[in-house]
Design a protein that fits this description.
alpha/beta, Rossmann fold, N-(1-d-carboxylethyl)-l-norvaline Dehydrogenase, domain 2, eight-stranded mixed beta sheet, 12 helices
Length: 315
């Protein structure tokens, strides 16, 4: 298979590195970057991948900034922020064919509605991953903790597409990424959303690793309130809840205690966050169902204030 990974961030580099290390002669792995300068730098220096066993791998993964030079591929992993997905799809159009499997790995749920709206003829797969990844510098990623990845279609697909998804899942498994096909990917996406709702904004606002949310009684209470609001919204939206969302969020905090959340990584790098796709999605659906979400509204306002300060200082 010819596999493209779009987005040289923490997760994109992790997936590209793991696949590249086990690609063999039957698979070609290419990292796609919209920035020609960064792509050239990464091609010159190579990528550095730190495994969870502290071992460093220096990899010569090809990085391409001109999708038209590649032509259609078999699989694309979209490892970009939710708010960058529209531009990313436009940028990746030369890679698409009617049989290209598009795998979307965005946080939150805003991308579900967007992907339905755009005119895509290729089969769309939605995925959620709890793999821990931290980008230490451009092209240098650290596997901060093992997790699980679920992939699935939102609706019934042709048997050929289902078989290709099974093939991609086996390829991920061979790369050491615990992966499986879910017949109810929407519930899996919401399960990840609950965790992100409880952890991401609080870690970003307070500049803390995940685990410290459990050591502060006030922050632990805030986390619980955020997730319970999301749970009420999910119930009103007809979402099947797999496990107790608060218990799952506390468990994730415990098992990823030293991890820096993706939103805190964005804040530290003065980048826009995915707050609209995560807590913003809960507030929006709350208004739709007449469910108050004061705690989610509050953290959205705080994150927006932090983002605004970045833009004011850079102006």
């Amino acid at each position: 298979m010819k596999i493209a990974v779009i987005g040289p961030g923490a997760l994109g580099c992790l997936i590209a590195a793991k696949l590249f290390l086990t690609a063999g002669k039957d698979n070609t792995i290419v990292l796609i970057d919209h920035s020609p300068d960064r792509a050239a730098m990464l091609n010159d220096q190579g990528l550095i991948f730190e495994s969870d066993k502290k071992k460093q791998h220096h990899l010569t993964i090809p990085v391409c900034s001109k999708p038209a030079d590649m032509g259609p591929v078999d699989v694309i992993f979209f490892c970009v922020k939710s708010h960058d997905l529209e531009e990313s799809l436009r940028f990746a159009s030369p890679l698409l064919s009617p049989t290209t499997l598009l795998i979307f790995l965005q946080n939150g749920i805003a991308h579900l509605k967007f992907v339905k709206k755009v005119d895509i003829t290729s089969p769309a797969v939605f995925a959620t991953s709890s793999e821990g990844a931290t980008l230490l510098s451009p092209g240098h990623t650290k596997h901060a903790g093992k997790g699980s990845t679920f992939l699935g279609f939102l609706s019934q697909q042709q048997q050929t597409d289902q078989k290709r998804l099974q093939q991609v899942t086996r390829t991920l498994q061979q790369a050491g990424l615990a992966s499986s096909v879910s017949t109810d990917i929407l519930s899996r996406l919401w399960a990840k959303l609950f965790v992100n709702v409880g952890i991401n904004a609080l870690t970003a606002i307070n500049n803390l690793p995940n685990g410290q949310l459990l050591t502060s009684p006030s922050l632990k209470k805030s986390m619980t309130q955020l997730v319970r609001e999301a749970e009420q919204v999910a119930i009103a939206s007809g979402i099947k809840i797999l496990d107790d969302p608060v218990a799952a969020t506390h468990s994730t905090c415990h098992h990823t205690a030293d991890n820096i959340s993706s939103m805190l990584q964005d804040i530290r790098k003065h980048r826009n966050t995915e707050i609209d796709a995560i807590n913003g999605a809960i507030s929006g659906l709350g208004r739709k169902h007449n469910i108050a979400t004061p705690n989610n509204d509050a953290v959205i306002a705080q994150i927006k204030h932090i983002e605004k300060s970045f833009h004011e200082h850079s102006a």
